[in-house]
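Team,

Forwarding the record for the chain on the shared tracking sheet. I've put the sequence and predicted structure together so nobody has to dig through attachments.
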Amino acid sequence: MDNKAGIRFLLDFWQDHYLNEYISEGGSKIKFITGREGSGKTFLLSEFQKDAERCGYLTVSLSAEQFYLNDFSFIYLQILNQIDLDSLIRGCASRIAGMLNYDMDTIGNRTLVDYLASIGASDVITMQTIRSNLREMFLHDSLMDYNFASACALLTADVLGHPSLDGESKRILKRWLTGDRALKSAELKSVGLSSVKINRYNARHMLRSLGRLIRKAGHQGLIVLVDDLEILLDRQGNDFVKYSSAKRNDTYESIRQLVDDIDTMKNLMFIFAFDRAMIDNENIGLKSYQALWMRIQNEIVSRKFNRFSDIVDMDILSEQVYTPEYLSEMSLHFAEEAEQMHLPYTILDETRTAELLKQSEYGSIGLAQMIKNATLQKEGNE
């Protein structure tokens, strides 16, 4: 498919404006994607994730169908579960070594201090410089939680070899960073941390701290993608989540707090995706929680697609940007997938895709799904 057509109308803009500039320069942003079922929301998230990774970001992809969002500490821990914390710590250690003009990749399995000792360079001044750089990187960063910064400083120091930690201390620090609530105050005190644990009230500050760690480790920032938010409307739920009215409102409040705090964070982007019912259902959808809806609704309501809009309407995007030629290429893409699975297919020409483009204005499913159904000869499902 031509990567300058169709959905690239939005993705190229996001890459240029957000990934290459605003987020990488220290900004943070929240976007919401909506549209009918099958309008391409998940595909948009997937393509943007690839763009972000190519631009040097860490990315996390989550489904609201897999965990509860009513407590922000759950969101934070889900994000952390997809991130290699050890790799981030090693990245920070490499930066500290780089400040001394040494390359951690060239010294083998030894710590920096062991290497310095082998070449006769582990003098007092060098050790003081390592400690000073650790303090500057972590403890002097006002955007990081002090416990979080202390834990990262200690773990980074251990990688450098000054000072080294015993195995139990390392386990306690990593358990605290990953939200282990079974830790006892005495254990935290033994590694110099206060007894405060990660909870719904401090989780956003922990996320801010994690974002700073990611940046210090050499990445451009953090991109978090949350799909399937419409599960909040499903009274039956699934095997993982079932939202009561209270849990649903707590989730809206959790997102509201994130919206309010986003400008205090750096190098971070959240994207939430959901079916149009989340907006249309005024009883239990987003509009039912005015404290959130008033913050995220587009100030100017227009049928013209706006790439700056915080609520992205995939139906308007497809209606105004997708061409019969692009849709034929989309059909070819679906056909190639079908051939790999030995399924029947028909590659749609531009005449047929033009007809479907017109029909999509009144259909109950999104244009992308209509193209897929027609390509796979399931047009009766339109």
